[in-house]
Amino acid sequence: MQRNDDTAMPTLAIHGAGGGAWEWTIWQRVWQAQARPFAALELMPAVDGLAQTRLSDYLAQARTAARAMPRPCLVGASLGGLIALALAAEVDASALVLVDALPPRGVAPRPPLRVMHDDIVAWGSRRRFASTQRALPDADAAAQHYAFRRWRDESAAVLREAVEGLDVAPPRCPVLVIAAELDEAVPIEASRVLAQSLDATFWPLRASHVGPLLGRSAAAIAARALAWTQAVTLSTAP
After folding, report:
1. Residue 126 contacts by C-beta under 8 Å, 6 or more apart in sequence?
2. Candidates 3.20.20.370, 1.10.150.130, 3.40.50.1820, 3.40.640.10; CATH matching 6-235
3. What is the pTM of this model?
4. How far, CA to CA in Å, does 200 sit from each of 54, 80, 170, 181?
5. Which of 40, 94, 130, 194 could form a disulfide with 24 if both were Cys (CB 3.0 to 4.6 A apart)?
6. pLDDT, tens digit, 9 for 90 and up, residues 120-175
7. Which of 179, 185, 142, 174 is nearest to 16 (CA)?
């Protein structure tokens, strides 16, 4: 029997609301150093503009990217985690890594729903460095400035749909749920319940919502997650 070569298995990473592919720079560097293909998807507004963008638009983009890969490992953070979970069974993912993922419908407690009076949440156009510092207390100044310069506005409709939740098909692959104890966006108990419902490996971390991607421990977390995917894909290889 031919040995499964896990290094050839591609990884597709999906970022969170208000972010971008840049959020995965540290993870991408760590995974590619181990010869693991790692592509970070940039979610784009719908053709009619950000105010008209819906969660289905992002799902369609991620679906297209994932289907172009043979049995991809899906990695998603926050909103991207919900998208990755929603697509995992459909695209026959080899493994699924969820980082502070917004939970699907039926998992409680639910993330808090922001009061949004406009069609666009102005995270980028009205960003403040002090807000970034509060959001990333576990990152150094360089990482905080890096994120501050790159936040973008987001569709309010996408956020409402995501917080309300999606009905998802259970993934048929190994799942890792990473949950930040200092997360103010996704309650850690929701991540714990999600992990239990998926029979997933659960890693609680002393981190902020975006800390596993951009904090001081991001490289170590990325390396640990990579080791997990390598172990589970080899153990489930035909």
Report:
1. none
2. 3.40.50.1820
3. 0.95
4. 29, 18, 11, 18
5. 40
6. 999 999 999 999 999 999 999 999 999 999 999 999 999 999 999 999 999 999 99
7. 185
